[in-house]
Amino acid sequence: MARFFILFVVILVGLFAAELTGPVQRAIVLPWTEGLARLSAGLITPLDSNVAASGKILQSTTNGFAISIEAGCNGIEAAIILIAAMLAFPAPWTYRLVGILAGLAAVQLLNVVRVISLFYIGQWSMQAFEWAHFYVWQALIMLDVLIVWLIWIRKLPRRPSMPDVPAPSMPAGATQATT
Amino acid sequence: MAADAMPLKKFVIHTFLWLPPSFAVWYFSAPYFVAIAGKLARLLVNQFTTDVVSAIEQTGSVLLFVTTIKVHPTPEQTALLLPEVNALLYSYGLALFLALMLAEGARWWKFLLGVLILLLVQSWGIAFDLLAQLGIRMGPEVSAAAGLSGWQLEVIALGYQLGNLIFPSLAPVMLWVAFSRLISGGLSGQRGQNQGEQKMGEHQR
């Protein structure tokens, strides 16, 4: 347990510090964020043609409302956390690779839903936008990361050195032993 | 495997069901936690500056830090700098933590310990938000008046990013992973399994 947490924190801080550097921002973060804005606009357009993407900004061409996809909303931090959790957990490298690729897809898919939903929530109510943006979606994305990680752990081959990690038992507390 | 999959599914559903009431508990209890987190944040801020904050005022979940830094809105006017911090930005992890723990039916002391740790996480966020305002966002005049420069600004920038982007949402999940008995059993690996086998052998004897 301690080994997992230490490894996780070391990888997490390393990846996060790397993300903040200028070269990584220019080579990965900014192009990724702009791609996210374009993808969101592309997905919206068949249903609502009054949307345009410019750089990392998604804008309504009817009322001028726009959102700028910034750090924390581009899914990169969530991806870093997921990668760190999968690398820190003892598993075969092929499972890690598949897990990271599938997990990133799941996290980014939900992040696209977040961006699009925020775009429309903001046009409806700024108060609701702030709640959804600052609190609710942040929690949901992290919950998504946790669920992906738990599913991945359950898919790992059972090894003598690493027993299956069962999901939390239900119902609440019924079979819980004192810890 | 199908039977194994059910608890995870149930856990996820229960977590989602607990989220709305957990958000309500978090929101309505936030002013009480903010008052404590603000005081703890001041202690952390004092590690970087020397008594720049002279008082803290609170309106709901917004903290107003009364500083000793003097600014000049116009050449004739002098005012004290009063940066604000929305403490909710750093505490919403409490809602996620409550939902996860309630979904698992965790023991009360784990709730208590988790809430205390999350208070520290919230304090970190508040402190570095204030420090980032004083040291970076308000310009060189204010950062000089606050006595912040060089390596301190680098630490503040990293501390702010961690406190803003990573800790608020990650801390509750890490706490849940640490507190979850079955998860921790799995992460313990061979040792836990061997201990279990040994105990079983002793019982059979």
Describe what you observe in this structure.
- The complex is a heterodimer of chains A (179) and B (205).
- Chain A is 65% helix and 6% strand.
- Chain A contains five helices and three strands; from the N terminus they run ααβββααα.
- In chain A, a hairpin with a 2-residue loop joins β1 (51-54) and β2 (57-60).
- The longest helix of chain A has 32 residues, at 93-124.
- The two termini of chain A are 15 Å apart.
- Chain B has a three-stranded antiparallel beta sheet, with helices on one face. Chain B has a two-stranded antiparallel sheet with strand order 3-4.
- Helices cover 72% and strands 10% of the residues of chain B.
- In chain B, α2 (93-104) packs antiparallel against α3.
- Chain B is elongated, with a radius of gyration of 22 Å.
- The longest helix of chain B has 47 residues, at 2-48.
- Chain B contains seven helices and five strands, in the order αβββββαααααα.
- Classes of the chains: A mainly alpha (179), B mainly alpha (205).
- Chains A and B meet through α1 and α5 of A and α1, α2, α5, α6 and α7 of B.
